[in-house]
Specification:
By secondary structure, this protein is α+β, with helices and mostly antiparallel strands. It has 24 helices and ten strands.
Length: about 650
Amino acid sequence: MSAPDRNTNVTERASTSAEKSDEIVDKRGKTNSVVWKWFGYLRSDKLQVSTCCKMCRRVVPTSSGNTSNLFHHLKQFHPIEHSESQKMRHHKSLSQQPVPQTTPPSSSPTPVVSKEKPMQQTQMAAFMPYDKQSKRHKDITKAVTNFLAKDMMPFSTVENVGFRKMISIIDPRYELPGRKYFSRAAIPALYGEVRERVEEQLKSVSYFATTADLWSSRTSEPYLSLTVHFIDQDWKLVSLCLQTVYFPDDHTGEAIAAGLADALASWGLREDRQVCITTDSGTNIIKAAELNGWTRLQCFGHRLNSAIEKVNQDKRVDRAIGVCKKVVAAFSYSWKKKRDLAAAQEEYHLPKHKLISETPTRWGSRQQMVKRVLEQKRAITEVLSKDKKTRPLVPNWQDVDVLESIDAALSPLLEFTDALSGESYVSVSFLKPVMHLFNTSILKEAEDDTELTRTIKTTVMGYLNQKYDDPAMDNLLDMACLVDPRFKLQYTQEEKREYIKERAVLEMLKGERSVVVREEESREEAMRDTFVPPPKKKRSLASFFSNRPTTTTNTENLSAQQAVERELGNYLLSPHADNDSNPLDWWKVYQNNFPRSTNTIHTLSPEPARVPTQYTHSVLNPPEVPTQYTHSVLNPPEYQHNTHTQS
């Protein structure tokens, strides 16, 4: 053998020896944990001190035989093997559980297979996924679908790692479907169920009111919202957002009118049963209501916002508001100034409140910003004065005087804005009392008011009085107050009270006739379906005395109009309900005392005083809408009011 061959053999033997020394071998002795399937020790480690991973050959420290670090290593670097190890642990724990003995031991030998086979089947079933037609699988899928719709989550949620991990922990046997299943099958099916339930609910509605508005998303996608309001059989005010649909057409009055009419028709709602529609002040949506011949109620929130905007046209107010915005911005983008502000609040014993930024579409946020700056005036001055760059931002005494005048005039209006935006109670009957309160108290000029405060009050009150001076609007609000047991004719002008009474009588007669017609139609329909003549009964002795002549009361001789007038008079003479009570609860209790009046309530009470669709987005988006728009409705961005609508 030549020298090169001998050198080659020596090298190969050395290489083989090195490979054997680097080989990972199993742990010596008994191993109780399944994790040792993926871990061991180098052959050269005679004492088996350093545990190594068989897949990545990393050394994983362990102490006193503790395997927690080993499982953590699998979870972090080898998730598939970690999942397998968890299943093996679960299987091992089941196999070690004692099998309960339900029958006493018999003298005859029992085959071993009969005991092991049921246990093996149970263990296998614990790891088998649910059948997709099983009740458990359907219940979990329905719960996930409701979660996506109710919380308006994007479909991609079901593909997020954290969400899928949570579902697997809750029930390992449940296999979560993908986003396409929820977007194309589950959500449309849920929409069908909800729509069917809502349509059934709307069949019993005699009269209703609606609110509508146009919105655009951050991606400039336009939407049209429609909400219906009505009083149900249990005297509860119900508000249902029927749709928030993609509206790509030009936002002309004609297009909006057609869209709203089609929306009512698609839900089986008759236009002649609509009491009124509440909208904002956009010229296009006002024209749409006129084209459809619908009675329109102005949104009080938008009217108040427009009145406040007129106040901001004053140069003094505009400058002071600009200073406020700059002060808030200085603290919003500096964590150091926020820290210093907290220290100054502690020093001057001020409330530990953060400054409030203005939201352009809500005047209330501007007023809250002004109030908070005035509250934290000393702390703000302390912080801004320390930095020469921000020292010019410190409000001077003139700015402070203007801000205090604004706060004195407009701060009381905040509570009314929030109160009139409620959807769970009747708010339209509050409009005349609120306007009366504005004129006689809140926005009435006081002796100690500054010149600017008086100007602000006059501007706001003049604008509101002008917009609510329409005769048709005034009649609608008077009728709404009339059927509210808290107010009745209290806020109606003296010279108009007889006219409102006469109009109420006509509405009550009309309502009574419509009830009779509906009852006759229902009776005729029932008789056409199944007519069974009633069995002839044998007359009892008492029946011969039932038709004897009796003395009639005055009520029996009254005509329908006289009976209605008497009932209305009794209602007006009854005690007023408490101002904090719900008028619908009052009518629920006293409906038997005033049966004719209750038919009129449904035609006058459902109107909201403010457009609520800016806070409510419908999940009842028709499944035929393209996926890209369905996603936007189920997970709506922060909607901004359409900038092209004009007051």
